[in-house]
Fold each of these.
Amino acid sequence: MIALVAIVAVLLVIATAVQILKIAELRATESGKEIYEISAKQSKAQALLLMVFLVAYFGFFAWQVWKWGGLMLPVSASEHGVGVDELMNITLWFIIPVFIITHIFLFWFSYKYSFSETRKALFFSHSNKLEMFWTIIPSIALTVLILVGLSNWNKIMTPVASEQEHILIEVYGQQFSWTARYAGKDGKLGRASVEYIEGVNALGIDISDENAKDDKIVKGEFHLPKGVPVQFVFRSQDVMHSAYMPHFRAQMNVVPGLKTQFNFIPTITSEEMKKITNNENFEYILLCNKICGAAHYNMQMDIVVESKEDFEKWLAEQKEFSAE
Amino acid sequence: MSAHQHPHEEQDFLFKYVFSQDHKMISKQFLITGFIMGFIGLSMSTLFRLQLGFPGESFWIIDFLLGSWAENGVMLPDKYLALVTMHGTIMVFFLLTAGLSGTFSNLLIPLQIGARDMASGFLNMLSYWFFFVSSVIMLISLGVEGGAASAGWTIYPPLSALPQAIPGSGLGMTLWLVAMAIFIASSLLGSLNYIVTILNLRTKGMTMTRLPLTIWSFLITAIVGVISFPVLLAAALLLVFDRSFGTSFYLSDIYIGGQVLEHAGGSPILFEHLFWFLGHPEVYIVLLPALGITSEIVSTMSRKPIFGYRAMITSMLAIGFLSAIVWGHHMFVTGMNPFLGAVFTFTTLLIAIPSAVKVFNYITTLWKGNIKFSPAMLFSVGLVSTFISGGLTGLILGDSTLDINVHDTYFVVGHFHIVMGLSGIFGMIAGVYHWFPKIFGRMLNNNLGNVHFWITIVSAYGIFFPMHFLGLAGVPRRYYTNSEFPLFDNLFDINTLITWFAILAFFGQLIFFFNFVYSALRGPKAPQNPWKGNSLEWTTGVKHIHGNWPGEIPTVYRWPYDYSKLNDNGDYVTGEDFIPQTVPLADGEKDGGEH
C-alpha cells in the first residue's frame, strides 16, 4: 500500500514538473529569447549564491570543529604518538589556510567577474613568473612535510632492539575475536602455526617447543605496562584483519601467512586517561580495521595500561600455557 | 515472412541504435548505461546510509528492495558489506570509468580533433558491448545465492577467496571477477582506440599543441589505463586460479571452518600490490577526464583562454606518470617493508605539486573573465572546490606517519569521495550539461540544472565533510554499525546528519534524471554553437550524420582558446569574443596564446 502511494506521488511530482517546464518555455518564447540563454541577471544570481555558499561552507566547517572537535581522539597515549600528533598539527596548519585562501579566490573571482554585457574579458593566457611561483611554493612546503614525516616514520617502524628491556606480545586475529599471547619469562614466543590448531589449542601453538611452555594467553582484555616498550607481532588465523589501537596511534594489518609487527611505549595509564578525558568508563581499545566478514563491526578487545608493578602483578596471575 | 520484406529497414534500426559503429551513438550508449549503473550505485548508498544513520531501525523500503538481504526491514550485516562492495565497484568502474571516459572520449575525440570517426569503429562497438555484458553480469551477481561480492571493492583475499569466510565470496564473487575481466577488455579496446585515433587521425593543422585539453586528458587517461588495467586482469585471473583451481598465489596458513586449508606459500600482500598498481592510477583515470572537461568549460564560459595551457598539459603528464608509482600509499600498514613506505610517501606527496598548479591555473582563468554561470560552469567551479577540499587531506593520508592512525577510517572515506567521487561526478555532470546539445540536439533546462547543482553540492559536502571528523575520532570504515563501541556513542548525531544529507542528495539527482530524460525527448532544439565555443565539435551540424562533416573536414589554424582576443585597437579580432579554430591567423597574429 505504501509503495503504491509512493509511486502515485512520484508520478504526480513528475507531471507537475513537466507542466512547469512547459510554462517556462512558453514565457521565454513570448519574451523573444530562447529559454536556454543565460542573461547577466541570471548569471549574477548564481554568482551571488556562490558567495553565500562560500560563507555557508566556512560556517559549516567552523560549526563542525566547534560541535565535534571535543569528540576527537584524546592526547596520544604512546610516546611516538606525540610526534604523530605534532606532524598532524603542522600539516593542518598548512592545509587549512590553503583551503581557506584558495576557496576565497575561487568564489570571489566567480562572483566579481560574473557576466556583464559591457565588460570584455582579459586575454591572459600564461605567465611564466606566476607559474614558477606556484610550482616552487608548494614544493618547499612539501619538502618540509616529507622530511618531518619520514624522520618520524623511520623511528616508529624500527623494531625494539632485542637487548633492550621490553614486553613481547603476539596479537592473534580470527573471525571475529582477538587473543593476546605474552612471551613469558624467557622473552620468547613459542612456535605456532595453523597446522597445530586442535581443540583447546586454538592458537596453534607447537607444544613440543620449549619456548611455548611459559607463554601466557589472555582473552577479553590485555594489559600493558606504562613506560616500557611493547613489541607486538601479529598473526591471523583466517582472513586479513587490522589491529587498530587508535589511542596509541598504532595500526598494523594482521595477515595470514605473514608475521607483521609494530611497537610503541605506552605513556598514560588507563586511570590517568579517565581523568584526562573526564570519562569514568574510558577504556583503551583494540579494534579490527580491515574488512574481515559479517561481524567485522564487532571485533574488539580491551586494553588496560597500568604501572609496571601492577602490570607484573597482573601478568603473574595469568596461567602459563603448559598449565592449561 | 515480414522480416524478409523489410530487411533494409530492420537492419537500419539494429545497426543504427544497437550495434552501431558510429562514435556518437556509442557515446550515448555509454552515457545511458553508465547513468543506469550510477543510479543503482547511488540507490545502494542511500540504503546503507539508512542503516548507518538509524542502525537497527526497520524501513519498509529496505524490506521492499532488498528482499532476502534484509530481515524485518533491517539489512543483514554481511549484506551491508555486499551493498558497500557493489556500490564501490559500480561507482568507480561502471559510472566513473566506463560511463565518464566512454561517453566523452567517444563523443569528443573525433569531433574535436576533426576525424570522421574512431580509428576502428568495430573495436569501438565491441568496447561498448563488452561493457554492456559486464554490467549485466555484475547486476546478475546481485541475485545469486550467497549474495553479491562482499569483500569490499578492493576484494582483498583471503576474504574474497573463501566462501567460508563470507557468503558473498561464493558465486557472487565469481561473477564479480568474470564481469571485471570483461570490463577490462572493454576498457582496453576503448583506450587503444582513443590513443590511435588521437595520434593518427587529427585533421590538417591540428598539431598536438592545438588540441583542446579535453583531448589531452583523454589521451593521458587512455595511456594510464592501457598500462595499469592489464595488471588488474592478471590479479583477477590469479585470484580465479586460487579460488577454483587450488593454486596458492595469495593464500597461505589458513585455518577456517574447522580445517586447515591446503594452500601454502602465497601472499595476500602480492594481491594488494597488483590491485593497487591499477587501483591508484584508477583514481586518475576517473579524475583526468573530469579535469579535462572542466578546463574546456571554465575557459569557454569565462570567455578567456585557459591559463597556462602548456602547464596544464605538463601537469597532467606529471600526474599520469606519478600515478603509476604511488600505489604503495594504500599499503603503509599492511606489513610492507617500511623503507618502501618511505619511498611511496615521497612520490605520493609529489603529486600535490602538479595538482596545485592545476588549481591555481583554474583560479587564474576565472580572474578578469566574463563568466556566464550555466549549470555546467557551476559544476566546474564545484569541481575545483572539491578537488581542493579533497586533495588537501591527501597530504595527511599520503604521509605514512599520519596514515597509521587514519588508515581505513572514515577519514579515508571522506577524502576519496570528495577528491575522486565528487570531482569525477561533477566533471561528468558538467560535461553532460555542456555537451547535451551535441549529444541529443536539444537543450537541458537551466533552472532545473541550477537547482540540481545547489542540492548536489550542499548535500555532497554535508555527507562527506563530517566523515573526516568520524575518522579522526577513530571510526573504522565498513562497519555495519558503530553501536558496539562505547567509544563511538557520542558520534551518533554525525551519522544521522550524514544520512539526512544522503537522502537529500538522492532526491537531488532525481531532478537531474528527470531533466535529462525530458530534455532529451522534449527539450528546446539546440542551436549549432550554444556556448560560442571555438573547438571543432561546434562546427558540426546539430543533427548527427555519419562522418560528422558533410563535406571536407575543416582545417585548423589556431589553438582552441582564442576567447576575447583583441587587436591593437582594443576591438575583438573577428568582431565577436571568440575565434573558432577554423579561422586562419591574421597577418602578424601569433597562435597558441602568444601575445
Amino acid sequence: MARSKAYVASVGFTKVGDHWEKSLLDLAVEAGSSALKGAPKAKPDVLIVGNMFSAVGASQEHLGAMVAGALGLTGIPAFKVEAACASGASAFNVACSLVKSGSVGSALVVGVEKMRDLEPEEASQALAMAESAEYTQFVGASFAALNGLLARYYMESEGVSRDELSSIPVIDHANGVTAEHAQFRKAITADVVSRSSMVADPLRLFDCAPVGDGAAAALILGDPKAGAGKKLVGVLGGAVSTNEFSVYERKDMLDFRATRDAFGSAMSQAGLSLPKLGALEVHDAFSVVGALSLEAMGLSKRGEGCRDAKAGKFDLRSDMPINTFGGLKARGHPVGATGVYQIAEAFLQLTDAAGKNQVDRPDYVATHNIGGVDTTAAVHVFGRAS
Amino acid sequence: MAIQSWRIRDRYYRLVGSRCASCGAEYFPPVYRCRECGSDKMKDKEMPKTGRIVTYTQLHEPLPGFEAQVPFYLALVELENGARVLTQVVDSPDEAVKTGAKVKATVRRAKVEGESGQIIYGYKFIVA
C-alpha cells in the first residue's frame, strides 16, 4: 500500500539532437545536475537511470553506478531500468513506487540515450531489439516495418486517408517551433509529410520520429515540506501495463490494450475524468501509433484519432492540447530519455514555466510513454501541488 | 549468433509452431502458454504452408544484413489454421502483393551471418 505521496521537485534536460561533442555520460550528467540544482539536500536516496540500448549505442552498461559516481552521488543505490522506448517512464514509475512505499525519501531519475553515434542501419538494429530477435528481426522486419504493417491495416480497416494520417506530425512540428529543447523547430504541412521519402510503405519519413541524442531528469520527493518552498508538482497517478509482445500476435492489432489499461489505472488513481486534463503528452513514435494511442485513451473514437487531429481538436490552443513541446516527432525521441522529457514538460506546464508553449493554466497533465508497439505502456498523471 | 538460428532450425525450415493440447489453438511463432485457454500443455506442430495476407508493407530502410534485398515486402500472413506469421513475400509481382492475396510458404536464404559468412535459411512466402 502507498504510504506516502510523490512530488516532482525539479527537472533538467538537454536539447535533443546531434550531440557530436558529448558522450552518453556527458548528457546524463548535464540533465541530472540540472535537476539536482532543485535538490533540498545533498543527495537523493536512490538513482534510477532509464535507458534502452547503451550497450550497443555506447558499448556501455552498468549505468546506475556510473551516472551516480559522475553526479557525485557515490554511495547511494543506483539501477538501470530498461523497457525499450518506455524505459524513461518505467524508470520514473519505479522511482515513484520506491518513494511512495516510504523506503526512500527522495529519488533522482535520469533518462538518457545516445543514438547518433550509430550508423542509420545500426540505429535501426538497436531499435529492433524491442522486438523478437528470432521471429521479427530474423525476417528483416525493422521497428518501422512493423509500424508500416500496422499503418496499412489501420488505414484499410478504418478508412483513414494519407492526408489524415499526416495530421499528428503536423501538430508536433507546429508546437516544436517555439520549444527551445526540440530537435526540429520548423512547422510543416500535411503535404510535406505525405510527400516525404518512403520508409515502410505507407509510412514516410515524416511519419517517423527522428533519431537523436538527449537526456532528461526529474527529482522526486516524498515529503512536500522537503521542497523548501519550491513549486512542486504532485504525481497523482502512475501505471505500467503490458500487451501481447508483438503486435502481430494480437487478436485485435488496433486495440492498444496496454495504453488503455495504464491510462485507465493512472486516471482512476488520480480520481480524474478526461475533461479535467489540461494537456497530454502522447507517445507518437509513428503517426499511426499516436492515433491508436489517442483512441485507446478515449480522446478519440476508434478510427477517428487522425481526423480529430486534423479538425484541430488537439492543437496547442484547443481544450485538449497534445505534445505541447513537439512530441516525439519534433522535440525528438532519444528513446530511453523520451518518457522523462514528457514528465519534465508536464512539470513546466504545471509550474507555468512553459514559456511560449504554455497552455492555459492546466490543473492536470498526463504523460504516455510506450515501448514496442504498445507492448509496454507507462502513464503518469500530474497535478499542481501548491 | 548462428547457434541461436540453428537451435530453432525446424521452426525456420518447416514452420514448426505449437498446438494447445487442451483447446487445439495453434500458434506461430510457438508460445509457452495458450492465449485462448491459458493452458501450458503446448506441443510442437508443423503449420500448414498456405494462407492469406492480412496486411503488408514494403520496407525501404533495411536492418544490417538485409541491404541487398531492399525494397522488399513484409506481410502478416494468416495460415489456414488461424496462426499468424510475419514473413517476407518474395518472387511475386508488385501488383499481386495485396491484402487478401493467397500465399504459400517456401524456404529461402534468410541472411548471411558473421565473418565466416554462414548462410541462415528460413521461411519466406510467395503469392500463390
